[in-house]
Structures are given as structure tokens and as C-alpha cells.
Amino acid sequence: MSKLIIGTCNRGKLSEIKTILGDVFYELMSLADFVDVDPPEENGLSYADNAIIKAQCYATHSGLLTLADDSGLEVEALGWAPGVFSARYAGEGASDEDRRALLLSELAKSELESRKAKFVCAVAIADSQGQIVNVSEGVCWGRINNRARGQAGFGYDPLFVPDGYTQTFAELPEPVKNVISHRGRALAKTREFLLSHKV
């Protein structure tokens, strides 16, 4: 069975990706299986750019087919920030809780009362030579809750309430979240590609 590297060290994200990809015909590995891989600088202007940067880096390093994603939260009242800087929003070494606290603090200062927001995700696949063979994107619209709720998920999940629901991503059952989320939608397209193309 061919191997597919999932280019992340985030255990929550890794579990989510493996669950959504399901029964693809690949042995799924993570960056934890490669001790000497340094993450590249994510200096792209878009989620797709950053996903491509990571996929190419890990593929050329390992010589294996690699999947990498980049995602972020965009909030209307903050001029659609933090966007591609979502993971670095509160600075290097900040925790998920730090980032959520900063977001709520900045939202409280905003003159806009809108709490409209969207999660965006791009997933890139690079072949063993580092050539990009597929890029998929997914978007989920919703709003920012006024406080964190729920214990599941990671990142901004406890603050984000998707349209049509009253629960945050961190409160929703995993099967529901994996269908409607930005990452779930992008990975559903990625899964279709992997099942229909032998890379």
C-alpha cells in the first residue's frame, strides 16, 4: 500500500483529517514519523499558497506523496482578520486560549456589531517529486459567539457557531462537524481525488 503523509503535528487536526479521508487506498502517516523535518516558513498570501508550500516541502524531504492544509478564521468586524495569520494571531508560542481571548478582545473594541465570520481551508497534495497534483478548498460561514463553549475540536472551534446551528464547532458531534466544516468540505473533495486518481 502506498504511503501518504499528512503534513501536520497538530494531533487534533491529524485525527480529523484521518477520519474524514476514511478508506482511501493509502497508509496514512504523520510528520511525527519523521523526526528531522523542519516546518517551512508559511509566507504565502493565501491559504492555498501556504498549503502548497507545506506539501512541497514535506514531499521533497520524504520522497512520499504528501497532503498539507492551511486554514483560518475571518471575522467581518475585524476586516476579515486574522485570516492567514490565524495560527500566529497572538504571537509565536501563544496557546489556543490566548488566540481566542485576543480575538474576543479585538471584537469588543470593534465599532461594527456584526459577528459574521467564516472558516476557510485549502488542502494541497504534492507527489513524491514535490509537484502539486491537486488543491481543494472549503468554506463554512457562521458567527463568533461571545464566549468559548465546548470541549471538542481545537483552535477557534469553541467560538465559532456555523450557520444553521446553535452549537459551536467544539460542541457539535464530530460526524456533523466533519461534514459541514471548512476542512471537512475541502477534504471531501480531496478524498474524491485520491479515490479516482492513482498518484
Largest sheet: 7 strands, mixed
CATH structural architecture: Alpha-Beta Complex
- From the spread of the alpha carbons, the general shape counts as globular
Sheet-strand content, in percent, reads 15-25%
Number of domains: 1
Sequence stretches where pLDDT stays below 50 over 5 or more residues:
none
How many beta strands in the DSSP annotation? 7
Distance between the termini: 12 Å
CATH topology term:
Maf protein
* CA radius of gyration: 17 Å
**Helical percentage:** 25-40%
Q: Let me know the average pLDDT.
A: 93
- What is the CATH class designation? Alpha Beta
Structural class per helix/strand content? alpha/beta
In N-to-C order, the SSE pattern is EHEHEEHEEEHH
Give the helix tally. 5
Write the layout of secondary structure elements.
Layout: E1 3-6, H1 11-21, E2 27-30, H2 47-62, E3 65-75, E4 81-82, H3 96-109, E5 116-126, E6 132-144, E7 160-162, H4 174-180, H5 182-196
Helix pairs in contact: 1-5, 4-5
Quick tags:
199 residues, Maf protein, 5 helices, alpha/beta, 32% helix
